[in-house]
Write a structure and sequence with these properties.
By secondary structure, the chain is an alpha/beta fold. The chain has three domains: 2-39 and 516-620, Golgi alpha-mannosidase II (Immunoglobulin-like, Sandwich), CATH 2.60.40.1180; 45-63 and 220-511, TIM Barrel (Alpha-Beta Barrel), CATH 3.20.20; 93-217, Galactose-binding domain-like (Jelly Rolls, Sandwich). The chain contains ten helices and 31 strands. The strands form six sheets. It has a nine-stranded mixed β-sheet. A hairpin with a 6-residue loop joins strand 22 and strand 23. The longest helix has 17 residues, at 353-369. The radius of gyration is 27 Å and the shape is globular. The protein starts with a helix and ends with a strand.
Length: 621
């Protein structure tokens, strides 16, 4: 029976993935056993993610369409981090013309503002390269002052092939006095384009000063792009980390990035370059986690000291009767954010003498602010466990490598350290950053967008689940853009989300998550396999990663279950054209080349496409 099924199953796979002839199809027999693999349970936070204030990671997810809205200038990224020189939203500048200039004349915020001086013709301040969507309302706001009789308006416009301008949306603005005042307007686009131009226009006699201009689509979600929120929520990252190198050593200061964003001043990211617009701070991050139904994990700055960390916990978690809880309420969020997971410092060695000297004070003040929190260290060491092991919940390595043997060795080494240190039995491992590489720059950086890279990601998820007795948190780096390292890319025009191959892998695993790791035996190593079950063992999932350019038949047997398991559904991340090319990527022109597809299967066998990550659902009858 099994032999007669192989040709039929392979034929079905060929029909679905027509594109290349199979070179060397292989077969794997696997037996899934009812016995748990270890004493632990798989935590859904294994499939987490990471937001870092790095170039266009946050600006690309935020709904603000105007860059440099504070007129402090556009700075390049640091010269050590680069891909191919493509421009992103952080490169967009205000268009130059003779009717406006930057001045230091009493700006509303920061060092500069814009001064418009109309003459015989109107003065215009424009920014190009924006997206506009038909029938969408756009909310404008800005701080203006004037010294004459001016007619002021805003619009979105589009240059026709004839050289004429087509107005897509417009709104008049009220007259303003010589004192700064905030003005708002709403305008609805009557057409769609990715080449819209925003214009602030002043006509008449006198001068107009402008600062902190903003343009957002009305359908934003608490300032975040709706399409981004929907994409991330669908991928179900159970935890999202905030922090990274912008915290240590990037000089991000959380207290300067809360409250009214128009009152925040852009700051220089000394690690990654750029002037950060300061639109996204800790409050916006926590609200993003609420929108995506994810747990926030906050990395506090070691450089800022223990009291700053304790104040941040009070801001996020305390009631409004406390100093910083009252500030959170004043900032528009009366209820606490209830952040459980707090990491002390980013990428600091556990043998660092200063870290070892200060971390007891960090723990004491942070626990005083909220005794219920779970403390996470930076990089683990024996000295660190000896010193504070009884007081922390997690130790946190970072894994940036495709070498899974090294990662396995790291897990085993840390686990042994935990097991052999008195008072540390309850400590778990949280991998607060991971990917195939962190220091690969230049054109090689694009490898992180490939199908092959996503399969390494899938195998790493399998590895973390095998160590689920210790590994409870995994934060893939990064969420958006990040010089090709992220799992989504956002259009620099402000509209459109491209889901990378790695997005679909993370989506696949998170949406097929089951808690109980199971023992599994296989006939050969062609496939990386992992099996899990529901607590009642009525539902099973087998994750199968095929990193080869060949199709493979996986035949399943089951041992020790209370009924007869059978395959109910199979979903696979793969190249839909089946070209056998590991370096294939999704592009804006071909956004669905790699995606999740349904696979045919018998009750106990499935043919796996080349270069694929597959989730095989089974039910026990």
């Amino acid at each position: 029976m099994r032999n007669s099924f192989i040709p039929a199953c392979l034929a079905a796979a060929l029909a679905l993935f027509s594109g290349r002839a199979l070179a060397n199809p292989f077969a794997v027999n696997a037996t899934v056993k009812a016995q748990p693999l270890n004493s632990g349970a798989i935590d859904p936070k294994t499939f987490g993610n990471f937001i870092e204030l790095l170039d266009d990671v946050a600006p690309g997810m935020w709904a603000e369409l105007l860059n440099d809205r504070s007129f402090e200038g556009v700075l390049p990224a640091s010269d050590w981090c680069y891909y191919d020189g493509s421009l992103d939203i952080c490169d967009r500048k205000w268009d130059t013309n003779a009717t406006w200039r930057l001045v230091k004349d009493n700006p509303f915020n920061g060092a500069y503002c814009a001064q418009l001086t109309p003459g015989a013709e109107a003065a215009t301040l424009t920014q190009s390269g924006l997206s506009a969507r038909k029938n969408v309302n756009y909310n404008f706001s800005g701080y203006l002052r004037a010294d004459g009789d001016l007619k002021i308006s805003v619009c979105l416009k589009f240059l026709l092939p004839t050289g004429e301008w087509l107005t897509l949306a417009s709104a008049p603005l009220p007259s303003v006095s010589s004192a700064w005042q905030k003005v708002t307007a709403q305008m609805q686009a009557n057409g769609a384009t990715d080449r819209a131009v925003f214009e602030l226009r002043a006509k008449g006699n006198g001068h107009l000063w402008a600062d902190k201009l903003s343009l957002m689509p009305e359908d934003n979600l608490q300032g975040w792009r709706r399409d981004v929120v929907e994409a991330i929520k669908a991928a179900r990252p159970a935890v999202i980390r905030w922090g990274g190198s912008c915290v240590d050593p990037g000089h991000y200061a959380w207290k300067a990035n809360i409250g009214d964003r128009d009152l925040r001043t852009p700051w220089l990211n000394k690690n990654w370059g750029r002037l950060d617009p300061a639109d996204v701070g800790i409050g916006e991050f926590c609200q993003f986690c609420e929108l995506t139904e994810s747990e926030p994990l906050i990395c506090v700055s070691f450089e800022d000291g223990a009291q700053s960390a304790a104040d941040l916990i009070e801001y996020c978690n305390a009631n409004a009767q406390t100093t910083w809880g009252a500030r959170r309420q004043a900032d528009g969020h009366p209820e606490p954010y209830h952040v459980k997971f707090w990491q002390i410092g980013n990428e600091i060695s556990g043998n660092n003498p200063e870290y070892l000297r200060q971390i007891p004070q960090f723990i004491a003040l942070m626990k005083k602010a909220d005794p219920s929190i779970q403390i996470m260290t930076s990089f683990p060491s024996q000295k660190l466990l000896n010193l504070v092991g009884k007081d922390v919940a997690f130790v946190c390595p970072h894994h940036y490598t495709p070498n899974l043997e090294d990662c396995e060795h790291s897990f085993q080494e840390i686990s042994d350290m935990i097991d052999h240190t008195p008072g540390c039995a309850n400590i778990k491992i949280g991998v607060t950053e991971w990917n195939i590489d962190a220091g690969l720059w230049g054109l090689g950086r694009a490898s992180e967008e490939t199908l092959a890279s996503s399969l390494v990601n899938a195998r790493y998820l399998n590895l973390m689940m095998r160590h689920c007795d210790k590994v409870k948190i995994g934060c893939r780096s990064n969420m958006a853009n990040s010089y090709c390292g992220a799992f989504i890319e956002t259009s620099p025009t402000g509209d459109g989300v491209l889901k990378r191959a790695s997005y679909w892998v993370m989506y696949l695993y998170a949406n097929h998550y089951l808690p109980v790791p199971l023992r599994l035996e296989k006939s050969n190593d062609h496939l990386d396999l992992f099996a899990a079950a529901s607590n009642d063992q009525k539902s099973l999932v087998i994750f199968a990663v095929n990193s080869t350019p060949d199709s493979g038949l996986l035949s399943l047997a089951f041992d020790g279950f209370g009924g007869a398991p059978g395959i109910s559904k199979v979903e696979s991340v793969c190249d839909t054209l089946n070209m056998g090319q590991p370096d294939i990527m999704n592009h804006w022109e071909t956004p669905d080349r790699i995606k999740i597809v349904d696979l045919p299967a018998s009750s106990q066998s499935v043919s796996l496409p080349p270069l694929s990550a597959t989730a095989i659902q089974c039910v026990v009858n």
